[in-house]
Automatic annotation (TrEMBL):
Sequence similarity: Belongs to the binding-protein-dependent transport system permease family.
GO biological process, alphabetically ordered: transmembrane transport
One Pfam match: BPD_transp_1
Biased composition range(s): Low complexity: 157-168
GO cellular component term of the entry, any: plasma membrane
Native organism taxonomy: Bacteria, Bacillati, Actinomycetota, Actinomycetes, Kitasatosporales
Protein name per its UniProtKB record: ABC transporter permease subunit
Bilayer topology term: Multi-pass membrane protein
Subcellular location: Cell membrane
Annotated stretches, region: Disordered: 157-176
């Protein structure tokens, strides 16, 4: 039996040299594009804004002392806690559902399509979607439509009683007038509206007759001038106004004015007529999606819209490799689809879900463009994240690259644990 010959030391050196020659370009690029910027950022973070005065850890102390930086740190924590989990969960649901419908391929294409759009274009799109004006913002247009369907009350924003000679304006914005039965009617003349602002159904003002408290709510603006506090020719009633009748501090009856502005409370000879403040409130205009309270959830929603397709495709690939025998055995044993999903599908997909989740954590830590494009200037600080704050401090007017470098180093330190976890997952995964 012949013993295999070992390569000589010279041949081994040549092989190592050849391997190093092939690796050298990649190592040079890695050093120039990754290692050198990281090292220089660490060094630069120890100097002041001009780069001439050594401040040590002063920039890091400034990061934790500035309210804007603390807000960015808090928002980044919200992003990490919410966005990756939602993207992973929605991607899982989409991946499972697309296996059970015949048009699953078309659905995958539609869900994945936002990945083909740049973040800049997606940010501009969602900036329009979140517009406060229902005439422009899609979400508020839908919200106003739903609200008006369930609450179709007509409002007259800006309407008010005459300062003198009219009913009393209450501190809560309601209008009150004393009422009585018999021939005397309660006149509620209002001003502050243009005649062309009335609904098309508004008819000439007329006072109903009969027993009980009755009256008319009308716009006391006559084309020919007229007499204040009296119904003149051409003055129209205000239809759809909610009118309440109070007896002391108790509401005893409620009605709505007719097209001519008239109302009547039959069977109530006396009482105080009240027009609630809601009659004069501005119409419902939706939510301030880009206001200080909702801007961060709104931007997270845009992020989920973009990345849910990515998560769905990765999870669908893992789902296709699951052993079908366990699923069929569970069905034969009488397990329901929810039980199969919760106790078999999800545990077997745990490695894939972990990779998607950790990848999204790394991604949201670096989120910048969506926040920069969607958030308006007045609320940009309320929605700021670490990457955006880094840019603003360094190049967006702050011109303090020492503080910006400190923010960059802090961001790197926060991302490194997630990167290490992801690398360990890849090493443990079967090849």
């Amino acid at each position: 039996m012949t013993t295999p010959r070992r390569p000589s030391s010279g041949a081994a050196l040549r092989r190592r040299g050849l391997a190093l020659a092939f690796l050298l370009p990649a190592l040079a690029l890695l050093g120039a594009l990754v290692l050198y910027p990281i090292g220089w950022s660490v060094v630069r973070s120890l100097f002041d804004a001009d780069g001439t005065g050594f401040v040590g850890l002063g920039n890091y102390q400034a990061v934790l002392a500035d309210d804007a930086n603390l807000t960015a740190l808090r928002n980044s924590a919200i992003w990490v806690a919410v966005a990756p989990a939602l993207v992973t969960a929605i991607g899982l649901v989409f991946a499972v559902l697309t296996e059970k419908v015949r048009w699953g391929t078309a659905f995958k294409l539609l869900v994945f399509m936002p990945m083909a759009i740049s973040f800049l274009a997606a940010g501009i799109t969602f900036r329009l979607v979140y517009e406060q004006d229902p005439q422009r913002g899609v979400l508020n247009a839908a919200a106003v439509a739903v609200h008006d369907t369930f609450d179709p009350e007509v409002g007259y924003p800006g309407a008010r009683p005459r300062p003198t000679g009219g009913p009393a304006l209450q501190p809560d914005g309601s209008v009150r007038a004393e009422g009585g039965g018999g021939p005397a009617a309660v006149l509620v003349p209002l001003v502050g509206l243009k005649p062309d602002a009335l609904p098309a159904t508004a008819a000439p003002a007329a006072t109903p007759s009969g027993d009980g408290v009755h009256g008319v709510v009308y716009l006391d603006v006559s084309p020919g001038g007229g007499t204040p506090g009296r119904i003149d020719a051409g003055e129209r009633g205000l239809p759809g106004v909610r009118v309440e009748l109070h007896d002391g501090g108790r509401t005893v009856a409620t009605t709505v004015t007719a097209d001519d502005g008239g109302f009547r409370f039959a069977g109530h000879p006396t009482g105080t007529v009240s027009l609630p403040a809601g009659n004069f409130a501005a119409p419902y205009r939706g939510l301030a999606w880009l206001g200080p309270g909702l801007v961060t959830p709104a931007i997270i929603g845009a992020y989920i819209w973009i990345w849910a397709g990515f998560a769905m495709v990765i999870i669908a690939g893992g789902l296709a490799n699951l052993p079908r025998e366990t699923l069929e055995a569970a069905r034969m044993d009488g397990a329901g689809e929810w039980q199969i999903f919760r106790r078999i599908t999800v545990p077997q997909l745990a490695p894939v879900l972990g990779v998607v989740f950790v990848t999204m954590v790394i991604n949201v830590m670096k989120i910048f463009d969506l926040v920069f494009v969607i958030a308006p200037g007045p609320v940009q600080q309320d929605s700021g994240v670490l990457a955006l704050r880094l840019w603003l401090v360094s190049f967006g007017g702050g011109n303090d690259q020492g503080l910006g470098s400190a923010l960059g180093v802090l961001l790197l330190l926060l991302v490194v644990p997630a990167m290490v976890l992801n690398i360990r997952r890849f090493r443990r995964s079967p090849r």
